Amino acid sequence: MQVLNFDTIIIGSGLAGLSAAFHASKHGTVAIITKSQLDTSNSYYAQGGIAGAIMEDDSPELHYHDTVVAGRGLCEKEAVEILVNEGRDRIMELIEMGMKFDQVDGKYVLGLEGGHSKRRILHAGGDATGKELTCFMLQKATEQPTVSSFEYTAVTKLIVQDGKCVGAQAIDFTTGENLTFKAKASILATGGLSRIFSRSTNPHTATGDGIALAFEAGACLADMEFIQFHPSALSIENKDAFLISEAVRGEGAWLLNDKNERFMKEVHPLAELAPRDIVAFSIFKQMQRQQIPNVFLSLKHLDADKIKSRFSNIYHKLKECGYDMTTDLLPIAPAAHYMVGGIKTDLHGETNIPGLFACGEVASTGVMGANRLASNSLLECLVFGKRASERASQHPIPDTEIHAQDYMTNLKEHEDFFLTIKNDIADLMSANVGIVRDGQTLKKTLDHLEEIRKQIPEKPEDYNIQKALQITEICQLITYSALLREESRGGHIREDFQHENPDFRLHIIQEKNKEPEFIPVKK
């Protein structure tokens, strides 16, 4: 098996991975490994924007306040302080590097989104911020002479020897060849897992690989029960959910039920701009109460030309689906969108395994709490991507030879097996571990997942079989954590425990072959 040596390996090519790669390139050689193309990621598809307190009437203190309010008591103070203060620096750094955010008459156009008390959301290309920002950082990272990229290459194992992560094993999809990457540090930036649900805004690659790899290697996971469901995803039968940015509501769109009533005004003082968990749950209740498959988003009362200009990509995509967003009621329903929990890290992105780091959506840094504040995710990618890469550069070169690894195949004949498992589990998770949960159903779901797991070899020798095992295991972790949290908080809502319980101001930590641990939020 070929062994490739680098100072740092980055697994994933979203904004967090590209940010980490760019900064790591200043300290040595870097490999970016991605199972698809470099520009396929959740970051690339982000429509909303990036939050930053850059204006005179705003401040990091106000941004901090909005973040912890949305996080429902589970944010870690120091992590949020780093996010809002260093986040402003990272944005200004991007602008100095040449990143163009939208301006009118020389002033930045700032959007307003749910949970924010100020207009502080920077956009690029209107509603294509993720694409513009990811492509910008992709160019900056890959033009560095110390950076090498490996597309269509999937990491199948993190290699831990003598308690330290010394690299990773991967398979090249184009050749079938297995590769071993040896490095001082490995940074997981593999993004989220919302494609484990049948209705999701994520690309098909977002199936939680990084979390599964880290858990198998012995890394701690935190708060796996907190999945954020985006309130406004287009709902058309037998079609994938299409995200309609939170920024659309920020510009004044209304949520209407089947009686043409604005229901959010009765729920929260911010109405349609309440934090996402509240909006998503309120939509769910309307759908449940009226036995309807969706509610509606209305922009008919807004300036049509302004909407077409501000949301040109969304406008044209909706046109393809048969809707004019300036005149039609848009059928929407919540869809799985963002993994709030993830691999537990310290403030520099390092896990409990020396040499293994995580940043971006795959990580749980303490920033998001029980519910992510809109447009903080791209900011977290920039801030903690840089911090992880800089701490990773301080690790010594492993003084050990990597042991021989078991060869992994990628046989086409196993694809159908994986897809069957994946689709069955996606339906199961959407039905039972979605926006609203209850203990009895969660227990039955765990039993069902265990029956599925028995169909899969415990030590798979093929990539697709391993993927089936990983998805099953991730769903078991999410469901078990949801069962343990006997309260409703943020993105986790229990019908049998309908209120927030102050005794559960705790993080649920899961580690392989150990009982879950409850850790209080730092005071």
Name of the top-level CATH class of the largest domain: Alpha Beta
The number of distinct β-strands equals 24
Roughly what fraction of the amino acids lie in strands? 15-25%
The amount of helix comes to 25-40%
Number of domain units: 3
Instruction: Please tell me the CATH architecture of the largest domain by its name.
Output: 3-Layer(bba) Sandwich
Report the principal-axis shape.
Answer: globular
Q: First CA to last CA: what distance?
A: 49 Å
Average of per-residue pLDDT values:
94
The name of the CATH superfamily of the largest domain reads: FAD/NAD(P)-binding domain
Task: Please give the largest β-sheet.
Answer: 7 strands, mixed
CATH topology of the largest domain: FAD/NAD(P)-binding domain
Low-confidence stretches: none
Helix-and-strand structural type: alpha/beta
Query: What does the radius of gyration come to?
Result: 22 Å
> Helical region count?
14
Short descriptors:
FAD/NAD(P)-binding domain; Flavocytochrome C3, Chain A, domain 1; Methane Monooxygenase Hydroxylase, Chain G, domain 1; 523 residues; globular; 34% helix; 5-stranded mixed sheet; 7-stranded mixed sheet; alpha/beta; 3 domains
Structural notes for this entry:
There is one protein chain. The termini are far apart. The longest helix is centred in the last third of the chain and has 22 residues, at 463-484. The radius of gyration is 22 Å and the shape is globular. The chain has helices at 15-24, 42-45, 60-70, 77-97, 129-142, 209-217, 246-250, 276-290, 304-310, 312-320, 377-392, 415-432, 439-453, 463-484, and strands spanning 2-11, 30-33, 50-51, 103-104, 107-108, 110-111, 121-122, 147-150, 153-161, 164-172, 178-188, 221-222, 227-234, 242-243, 254-256, 295-298, 330-339, 342-344, 356-358, 363-364, 436-437, 493-494, 506-510, 517-520. Strands 1, 2, 8, 9, 10, 11 and 19 form a 7-stranded mixed beta sheet that branches. It is 34% helix and 20% strand. It folds into 3 domains: 2-225 and 341-392, 3-Layer(bba) Sandwich (FAD/NAD(P)-binding domain); 232-334, Flavocytochrome C3, Chain A, domain 1 (Alpha-Beta Complex); 412-484, Up-down Bundle (Methane Monooxygenase Hydroxylase, Chain G, domain 1), CATH 1.20.58.100. The chain is of the alpha/beta class.
